[in-house]
UniProtKB/TrEMBL annotation:
UniProt cross-references to Gene3D superfamilies, sorted A to Z: Divalent-metal-dependent TIM barrel enzymes
Superkingdom: Bacteria
This protein's UniProt keywords: Isomerase, Manganese, Metal-binding
Upper lineage: Bacteria, Bacillati, Actinomycetota, Actinomycetes, Micromonosporales
An annotated Gene Ontology molecular function: L-rhamnose isomerase activity
PANTHER family: L-RHAMNOSE ISOMERASE
InterPro entries (UniProt xref): L-rhamnose_isomerase, Rhamnose_iso-rel, Xyl_isomerase-like_sf
The species this protein was found in: Catellatospora aurea
Enzyme Commission (EC) number: 5.3.1.14
Keyword field contains Isomerase: yes
Protein name: L-rhamnose isomerase
Amino acid sequence: MTDLAAQSHVLSTLRGQRIETASWAYGNSGTRFKVFAQQGVPRDPYEKIADAATVHRFTGVAPTVALHIPWDKVADYPDLARHAADLGIALGTINANVFQDDDYKLGSVTNADPAVRRKAIGHLLECVDIMDATGSRDLKLWFSDGTNYPGQDDVRTRQDRLAAALRETYDRLGPDQRMLLEYKLFEPAFYMTDVPDWGTAYLHCTQLGERAQVVIDTGHHAPGTNIEFIVAMLLRAGRLGGFDFNSRFYADDDLMVGSADPFQLFRIMHEIVLAGALEQSAGIAYMLDQCHNIEPKIPAVIRSVMNVQEATAKALLVDHAALAAAQQAGDVLEANAALMDAYHTDVRPMLRELREDMGLDPDPIAAYKRSGYFEKIRDERAQGQAAGWGA
Ligand code: LRH
Ligand code: MN
Ligand code: MN
């Protein structure tokens, strides 16, 4: 490829990239110590969708918003989908919530009590009904299930209960719908989590069928975990369904993706690019799962989208021929340099050009600030509601 052809390939790939934002990123959120209320936060799911549409208006690559049920429960889902379409976006992944009910203290689908399991499965099935109404492709499942003490419950029996719940839910999916199973190392359970890692999620997915896929939430690993290795393994197995992108320093911090470790995000995107998995036909969902506790929310989501774009652009700039030649020759330093050269490229001018080409402002955050949207929502929305947890 000539330099010019390579550049145009990079630009057209970036133009086609899609990043889903999360409804809960727009609402008030915090830690268990304090939720800091912000001005202008949405009062209902309709207003969360308006904020997501605003992010798309300034970035051009965030045309869907994920919902979390029951945080985003409404009486009329087709109406919510129409509202999104009127604003130029669509409803995306449906996230189930079986972690915020007193009944789930000892687990949801893994609970020893069959009545609690039935209630949890009922919610998962209800989420598929909602997907039918919204036209969503993906059902995302994360279970807080686990135990705090050795001996508290039987590990294998809990896995059996989990498998049965996943089977019933999977069998309810339509032919074009998928189940995305998300793992998390710990929290809120501290001794044993029922879906703690990609291996456990992968095992369940392979038993279910091809439309069961693993989700990697970048904040859900032990410090130092080589996440790009997990990306490569799941890509190789054809079981990478998507990402919940965010950034962390210590645990599941849910900070802006690419803020603590942009190099890790680049390494992840490099594996994606190497596997040709950026194309939408590869079926990998790129989602943000973040909470903006102290920074203004809409600009933070815009910044996060830009961070993903920058990491992707750098990954696309890796000279694959030079990399492969160095690897083949066993030239460790040249192989590493092929990656580092791309990583150290300043891709911001290229992304500014791309945005102008797409009819967007080259500086989305400045354009948002100038737009008057914040002043409008601040005045219109007197009493914002919490994102879902901890009011
Ligand atoms: C759990 C998690 C999961 C939930 C979201 C709100 O930590 O990452 O994806 O649905 O947070
Ligand atoms: Mn997540
Ligand atoms: Mn999380």
